[in-house]
Amino acid sequence: MTETDTDTGTRTTGGAMAARRHGTRPPKALRMSVELPLWRALTGYRILTLVYTACLVALSYRRYAHPLGAAAYMGVLTVWMVLTWRCTTSAERCTRRFLVADLGFAIGGILLTLVVDTHARIMGGGPTLPSIWTAGAVLGFAIKGGWRWAAVASTVVAVANLVERQELARDTIHNVVLVWVASVGLGYVVEVARSSERTLARALQIDAATRERERLARDIHDSVLQVLAMVQRRGAEIGGEAGELGRMAGEQEVALRTLVAGGLVPPPGIRPGGSASGVPRQAGEGAGEGAAVPAGAAPAGDDAGPCDVRALLAPFAGAGVTFSEPGAPVALPPAAAAELAAAVSAALDNVRVHAGAGAHAWILVEDEPHAVVVTVRDDGPGIPEGRLADAEREGRLGVALSIRGRLRDLGGGAEWISVPGQGTEVELTVPKGTAPEGGRRGKAGA
């Protein structure tokens, strides 16, 4: 959902509001309102044209047939401006009643020119009492209601100008057409901008909802789905009542995978029926045991300072996993380090499940100037072409969410290199600070 700040003209997505509720720093607000600058410009226009009109009346004061009438009108118009100048600072303050009253002051001034000015000056093309201030009243209709309102208001002004001039003079027609075209054009532009603004707000809302759904799906994949898969396998091995329990767990796993996969946006680089960039292996088909980050290794919070990635990945080392690290600390923000460790955990879990119990894995940590790169390699059988796309269509989201989705949210990416019979290599990249401009060997999923 989006929330609109009427004073600033900005809208905040649901993700930013959630970040505030959880005490984290929300993303920078995106200014979406195209109307706020227009209202500010209209306010400035009305003030400047009032000053200009007052100067015109002052310079021609002795030429009017009834100069006191002209001065009285300017005094009333000035008071009106002082009392209502804030009405044109935002769409909420600019009501229909105000627009009609403002247009009434303009029309009244045009018609009053017949009384206070001389016939010679009127027929000679002299300015009306409100002069170009009248355009501000018409532009208010254009910004508030679009081109239709602008057409009606400018038509009323045109009729009043023709009545005041008492003939179809060329300069009067020129001014009338100019005001009409300008106001209608501005009204049309405002309508198009509002439509684009609504489309953008809807897109941001869908993007925020999709990212939240992906985050929840990753958590489910790393916990519930893995437990259900384990129960299904163990139940089938034991048999009897345990086998029936395993069968039911398998059914629930399929149903939950279908629910999680529904409505997800396909990660970049993957197309239905095609293969992903880099030809990943079977990682992400299913879930095995132990995909969680090592206990106690998860960093505290963003306030805890930079986290050494080596400390999070070192517990993965064991008889079947070789861990290689630089001699110096590899620092990342705690949240980014935790997501990277979870992605490595998911990659190792896929090695255990799909490469076989005898497969060996290697973890290599590289601290590059602008990114941290972690490579997970195994000596398993590799993967067939297009296997990742097939797994995602079946609702198996290990690569799509637990690996690629995590890194994409951090501005990074993942690349798979696999040769059948020679194992698989997964390269995980997390930028330091901002998203990387490019990637080594064309990283996918960024």
From TrEMBL:
A Pfam match: DUF5931
Transmembrane segments: 38-61, 67-86, 98-116, 136-160, 172-190
Keyword Chaperone: no
A GO MF term: 4 iron, 4 sulfur cluster binding
GO cellular component, one term: cytoplasm
EC number from the UniProt entry: 2.7.13.3
Catalytic activity reported: ATP + protein L-histidine = ADP + protein N-phospho-L-histidine
Residues of the Histidine kinase/HSP90-like ATPase domain: 335-434
Keyword Transcription: no
Localisation: Cytoplasm
Enzyme class, spelled out: transferase
Keywords of the record: 4Fe-4S, Cytoplasm, Iron, Iron-sulfur, Kinase, Membrane, Metal-binding, Transferase, Transmembrane, Transmembrane helix, Two-component regulatory system
Cofactor: [4Fe-4S] cluster
Region (Disordered): 1-25, 267-301
Biased composition (Low complexity): 7-18, 290-301
Purpose: Member of the two-component regulatory system NreB/NreC involved in the control of dissimilatory nitrate/nitrite reduction in response to oxygen. NreB functions as a direct oxygen sensor histidine kinase which is autophosphorylated, in the absence of oxygen, probably at the conserved histidine residue, and transfers its phosphate group probably to a conserved aspartate residue of NreC. NreB/NreC activates the expression of the nitrate (narGHJI) and nitrite (nir) reductase operons, as well as the putative nitrate transporter gene narT.
Listed PANTHER family: NITRATE/NITRITE SENSOR PROTEIN NARX-RELATED, OXYGEN SENSOR HISTIDINE KINASE NREB
The name this protein goes by in its record: Oxygen sensor histidine kinase NreB
Source organism: Streptomyces angustmyceticus
